[in-house]
Amino acid sequence: MRSLIAVVLLLLLGTSCITNKSTTYLQTDEKLPQYPKAPYTYYRIQKNDQLVIRLLSLNEEATAIFNLDNGSSSSSSSYTYRVYDDGTIDIPFVESIPVVGLTIREASKVIEARLKDFVPDAMVKVALANDKFYMLGVSGKGAYPLYKEKLNIFQALALTGSMATNADRKRVRLIRPNPEGGRPIVKQFDLRTISIIDSEYYYVQPNDVLYVGPIKGDFWKIENYSAAVGTLSTSLNFLVSVVNLGFSFR
Fold first, then answer.
1. DSSP per-residue string spanning the chain
2. In this predicted model, what pLDDT tens digit does every residue of 75-110 receive, in sequence order?
3. pTM of the predicted model, to two decimals?
4. What is the CATH code for 19-43+130-214?
5. Is beta strand 142-145 parallel, antiparallel or unpaired with respect to 151-152?
6. The domain defined by 50-128 carries CATH number 3.55.40.20
C-alpha cells in the first residue's frame, strides 16, 4: 500500500500543467525577453529567385518582341525570369541586368530604365514568384503565400492554422536565407512577449522557415487544471480499486 501511494504521488509531482502563461501572446511581463524595436527591412533579391516582370505599354508589338506576353496580343502582360548565379536576369535583346541585392522596387526601376531604350512608354512592375514562407513543427507544415509585403508573425501563424497547445512559444526558430550567401541565418525568439511587435522578428520575409517545436517534457505536461484534476481522480480510483481487490483476497 505504501509503495502504491508513493508511486501515485511521484506521478502527480512529476506532472505539470501547460498554463495560460505558456500560451498567451502579447504579455507585458517584464521577466519575458524584451526585444528592441527595429526598422522594417525590405526583402532584397537573391540568387535563384523567380521574378515576375510585367511590361505596360501601348505598343503591343514591343511587348511581343520582348516575349513578356507569352504570345498574347495584350499590351499588359507578364513573364517569369530566374535570377542566375551571377546575380543577373536575361531579357531578350537586352544585356544581362544585375538585380541581386536590390529591393523589388529598385529592380523595377532598373529594368524599366533598360526597356525604355526600346519602348519609350514602358512601365515595369516586378513581383517575386517565390513569395512564400514555410512552416514546420507541431503547429502545421507546408508552404504558405505572403499575400502582402508586411506580413507579421501573427498573421503568418494564422495562415497555418491554430497553434497547438503544446507548441513551444518560448522558443520559436526562424531560418532565413543569408542574402550574402553561405549558411542560413537562424534566430530564436519568444512569441509571448509584447515586445515582439516591431522587433526584428515581427515580420516574415520570402523563403523564411518557421519552426515551432513541442514544449520540452510535454509528455508529462497536462494541458489544463481540469485535466490535472481528472488525472488525480483516476489515480485515486485506481488506488481504491487495488485496495479493495486486496481486501477481497483476505
1. -HHHHHHHHHHHHT-EE--HHHH-SSB--TTS--PPP------B--TT-EEEEEEE-S-HHHHHHTT-STT---SEEEEEEEPPTTSEE--TTS--EE-TT-BHHHHHHHHHHHHTTT-TT-EEEEEETT-EEEEEETT--EEEE--SSSEEHHHHHHHH-SPPTTB-GGGEEEEE--TTSSSPEEEEE-TTBGGGTTSTTSEE-TT-EEEE-BPTTGGGEESSHHHHHHHHHHHHHHHHHHHHHHHHT-
2. 445 678 999 999 999 987 788 999 999 999 999 999
3. 0.74
4. 3.10.560.10
5. unpaired
6. no
Could you tell me the three cell numbers for 34? 524584451
Model confidence pLDDT, tens digit, residues 65-77: 775 444 444 444 5
Please name the residue that has the C-alpha cell 501601348. Answer: 58
